[in-house]
Specification:
The complex is a heterodimer. By secondary structure, chain A is an alpha/beta fold. Chain A contains 17 helices and 13 strands. Chain A has a domain of about 180 residues: Periplasmic binding protein-like II (D-Maltodextrin-Binding Protein, domain 2), CATH 3.40.190. Chain B is mostly helical. The longest helix of chain B has about 35 residues. Classes of the chains: A alpha/beta, B mainly alpha.
Chain lengths: ~425, ~290
Amino acid sequence: MQQGGNVERRTILKAAGASLAVAGLGATATACGGGSGSGDGTVTIRYAWWGGEPRTIAIRKTIALFEKKFPKIKVKPEFTDYEAFWEKFQTQASGGNPPDVFQNAVGFLRKYDKRGVLLDLKTQADAGHLSLENFRNGVLANGQVDGKQIAVPVGANTMALVIDLNAFEKAGVDATFGWTWDEYFDALQTIQDKLKIAGDTGYFSIMYLYDLYLRQNGKAFFTDTDLGFTEDDLTEWWEDGFKRVKSGLVADPKKVEQVKPKSALSAGLAASEFTWDNFSIRYEGEGESDYGLAPIPTTDGKNTGQYLGSLMLSGFSGTKHPEEVAQFIDFMVHDPEVGEIMGYDRGLLATTEQYEAFEPTDPSNKGVAAYEEEVAAAGVLGKITPHPSGADVIEAAFLRIGGEVAQGRTRPADAAKALFSEAKAAFAG
Amino acid sequence: MTSATRPALPAASERRRSGSIAWHVGALAVLAVVLYPVIWVVGASFKPSKDIIAGLDLLPAEPVWENFSGLADGISGISISSFFWNSLVYAVLAVAGVVLSSSLTAYAFAKIRFAGRNLLFTLMIGTLLLPYHVLLIPQYVLFRNLELTDTLVPLVAGKFLATEAFFVFLMVQFMRGLPRELDEAARLDGCGHLRTYWSIVLPLSRPAIITSAIFTFINAWNDFMGPLIYLNTPEKYTVSLGLMMFRDQEGISDYGSMIAMSLVALVPVIAFFMAFQRYLIDGMATSGLKG
C-alpha cells in the first residue's frame, strides 16, 4: 500500500490546497475591504449611485476632483442601474453594510429613515462640515423629514408633458400655459381626428401625475402616514382613463407594451406623454420626430400643482466617517466645477453656485432649463408633500394596476380597492 | 429493401416515405421555434442600436459591426474583459468546489454506514426546500461580520462545503447504483475509504460529476443575485452585472452593445458544454461491470 499512501496524501494535499485557496481569498478581502482608516490618516468612503454610462463617467470625474482637493479621503465608487441598485441596497441596509454616501430619491426617504439607515446631516451642518445654504427654489426641503436633514438635493426636476412637436403642429393645436384638462383632451381629440394617432400614452397610471391632479384640487397623493384621497376619487380617475382608452384617445395598451422598452411617444403611437422633465432627452435619441416640453394641464386655469422633485445624496447613519461624508456631500453640491461636469444629468443644478457655473449648449438641456424657469416664474411651484414609508412600492403598484385597468382586465372600482389594500400592506411593511 | 420487392409493395413504401417527410418537416418546425431566439439575438447584434427595439425584422438590413467594436471601449470606464475574467474565475471555482465537496459527501452517504445517516440525508434534502430569499439576509450578515463582502468568498464558500444539496443527492443516487462488489473487492485488496473514493467510486461516477459540473458552471455564469449583493467594486463585477450597466432607465439604453455582449457571453457556456458532453456519453457507456 505504499502507492496507496501516496495517493491519499496527494488527495489530502489537494483538499488542503483548495481550502487554503478559499482562505487566501478571504485574507485579501480583509486586507482591502473594511475601508476604514489606515496609518497615515487616509480614510476611504464608499459612494454608490444608479444611472447610465454618461452619469457614471461624469461622477467619476467629480470624484477625481474631490480626491485631488481632499487628499486624505479616498472614494470607492459603486454603480449599477436603478432596479439593481435598490435591490442591492435593501439587502445591504438590512445587513448593516450600506455605502457611506449614496444617491437617493424622495420616495425612499421615510422608508430608510424609519429603519435608522440615514445620517442626519443637520448635525453635520451645525458642526460646520457641510453648508445648507444657497439652494434654489426651496429644494432643500425635499430632503427633510421630521426636522431632520436626511438627504441633500443635487438637482431639481418637475413633471412635464412631453409632446411630439410635429404632430401638434400638423393638427394645429397649441399647448399653452394654464390650459385646462378639458382643453388638453380636446387637443388630443383633434390630433386623433386629423392624424389618426392616439393623443396620450397612458397618463392615468402615473402616480406623480395623479398627485398633481389631486394637488390642483387641494389634496395630495400622500399624507404623512396614509393615502390622501378616497377610493371613489381614484375610481373616477381610472374610469375616465379607461373611457379614453376605449375611444382611442389614449394609445392601445397592448401596442404600448409591444414597443417597450421604447416609449409609445417615440414609437409614434401617441402625441404626448407625461414624465419628469429631465427624462425627456431619451425621446430625441429614440424617435424620429422632434419633441418638446409642454405645460401640465390645470383644473382652474392657473395652478398646475407642480413642485420640484430631486435626486439627492444621503449618508449612512452607521458610517465610521460622518465628517468626511458631510465634506464629500458639501463638495458635490456646492463646488462650481462639479456643477460644470455634471450638467443637468440629475436635474437642474440645485445650488446657485453650481447652477451659475453651467451653461447648457444642447437644445434638450436648454429646453429643460427654460421649462423650469417658466414654471418657477408662473409662481405655481408648491411645496413637496410627504412620501411615507412604502411610497416606492405604491408607485409601482399604481403603474401595474393602472395598466390592468387600461387593458380592461380589472374594473376601475375593483382596481381602486386593490390599490388601497396594497397600500395598506406597504405602509405596514 | 431490394429492387425485386419494391414494385411489389409500392403503397407501403410510399406511405413510409411520406411519413418520414412529415416527421422531418415537423422536427424542423420545432427546431425553428427553439432556435428563433438565438437567431434573433445574432441578428440584433448586427443591427444599429436604434433598430433593435424599433424594427421587427429578424435580420439586419445592413449588418454593422459597431456593437462588437464598441465593446472594446468598455463601459463606464471598465473593460469588458474584466467582467469575463471575473465570471470565469467564479464559475471555475464553483465547479471545483461542487465537484470536490459534493462527491466526497455523496460517497459518505452512499457507501458508509454510520449512525444518523438517514436523518442527516433527510435534513440535507430538506435544505432544498429553503427558498433563497430566506437565506439571503442572514448569509449577508454572516459574511459582513466576517468582512468578506466584496470578495468571491461568499459566492463560492458554500460550494466548497457541499451545500448544493441537489448535486449531492444526484451523486448519492448514482453511487448507490454502482455495484457493491467493486468497493468490496477494493476493500479486500486493502483500500481504505479515501482510496476507494478516489480510485474506484470517483472515476465510475464520471457521468454524475460531469452533469453537476456543467450545471454548476452554467448556474455560476448566469448568477445575478449573488454577485449583485456581494460584489461592490465595479471592477469585480461579473458578466451578468456588466450587462445591466448598458441599461439606463432615465436616458438612452445601449441595447446594441448589450446584445453583442450577451452573444459573446454565450460562448464560454457553449464551449464548456461542448468540451464535457463527450465525457458524459463516454461515461454512460463505460460505467458498471464489464466482463
